[in-house]
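User: Run a structure prediction on this.
Assistant: Running it now.
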Amino acid sequence: AGRGREALAQADIAISFGYAQELSHVLKALVYGRIYSDYRRQKTLASKALSYDPTYDEGYLVRAEAEYMLGEYPACIKDAAANSSLAPAGPDGYQSGILCMEAAGDYAGSEKSCHKILALKPGDHAALWHLGRAYAGQGRHREAIARFTEAIRLSGGRPSYFIDRAQSCEAEGDFSCCAWDYDMAAAWDEIG
């Protein structure tokens, strides 16, 4: 918290001098959100940053993060898309959008964003896992199992990857796969 107060003080000095208003407000937004868990204030400060420069892609990303934490998924999806349109070569906006789309139940939209990330970063295990979640959310469990398997292979396995694959295996009636994956997930220290 000491560093948070320090960062806020430095940002306030920059703001008082009229220097880099958008950067200073985004810095304050990040401190309030990530250190103090004050997501309302994070959203407000990110909006203020965007009022100084509506083309500042990071401002949309920081506001989307706050909106996700506040459960404001449609707004989060919109801001994540704004970030992606301003920074199309980067995966950050797509990644934020995926989280919000999953939470909102927009699995088709999540699927599209996953494909965009995989075009930018082939072999991204997190994108493959989210793609599996998008397929599972649409009832396409065989495709989901294939993506979860690929994500597990590339990452070395993560508990959440095994759990999601187990659920798709169960939906497909493959109970040995289901039991195996729950056992693999439980073997991780962070779960068991």
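Residues 2-16 form the longest helix (15 residues).
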